[in-house]
Amino acid sequence: MKTRVILLLSLLWTTLPAQIAGPNEPRYTGDGQLMRPDKYREWVYLSSGLGMTYGLVETAVANAFPERFDNVFVTPEAYKAFLQTGTWPDKTMFALEIRYSTTKGSINKGGHYQEGIAALEIHLKDQKRFPSKWAFFGFGTADQTAKPFPANSACQTCHAKNGAVDETFVQFYPTLLPVAKAKGTLKPLTGN
Q1: Does 23 map to a domain?
Q2: In a domain, 10, yes or no
Q3: 82-99 tens-digit pLDDT
Q4: C-alpha torsion angle, residues 35, 136, 134, 56 (rounded to 10)
Q5: What letters, b where the CB count within 10 A reaches 16 and e where it falls short, cover 6-18?
């Protein structure tokens, strides 16, 4: 009986898909769309920005609406690897959770606090799938799958040009910037 069970398990194992994603690895649909990460809020929190913009059009649009918070999370495995090497390993995923801000509510008399989700974007390093190694995916507020942005999208172009480490904005992550400096992986930043 034990031999049959072992044989059955062996057969099952060899027929499973070649890539079984771990809990913090990217999962794709059959047509190559990224599946929304289930528990990205349990990843390592890196930083939050409020009302950040990178270009003239974004600045004009941002001025027309209340400022939004950008919360950034990264997979724990990628975070640990970055601390050791100053670079991001393959299958690194960043979650950019964009939330609405407000100033009035409860006992608050000044400043801003976060409200509902405006969008979720994933920045993913997958060297086998993407020619430039990295890709962006937009999930809106509740989409469960997303196609990658075009390779020449504004996000991809800006990150390739201005990313401090491997197309990522480490310059905005105060706990990781010293690591990149110490490991010698920080690109010279122009401020443009």
Answers
A1: no
A2: no
A3: 999 999 999 999 999 999
A4: -170
A5: eeeeeeeeeeeee
Token pair of 62 as six digits: 């941002």
Residue 184's contacts (CB-CB under 8 Å, 6 or more residues apart) are 86
CATH number for position 51: 3.50.70.20
The pTM (predicted TM-score) of the whole model is: 0.81
CA–CA separation, 8 and 23 (whole Å): 25
CA 21 to the chain's CA centroid = 17
Number of domains observed in the structure of the chain = 1
Check: CB of residue 74 under 8 Å from CB of residue 91.
no
Q: Which domain, by its residues, includes 80? A: 38-183
Q: SS in 3 state form for the chain? A: CHHHHHHHHHHHHHHCCCCCCCCCCCCECCCCCEECCCCHHHCEEEEEEECCCCCHHHHHHHHHCCCEEEEEEECHHHHHHHHHHCCCCCCCEEEEEEEEEECCECCECCCCEEEEEEEEEEEEECCCCCCCCEEEEECCCCCCEECECCCCCHHHHHHHHHCCECCECHHHCCCCHHHHHHHCCCCCCCCC
Note whether residue 15 is domain-resident: no
Cα 171 from chain centroid? 15
For the stretch 136-150, pLDDT in tens is 999 999 999 999 999
In a domain, 74, yes or no: yes
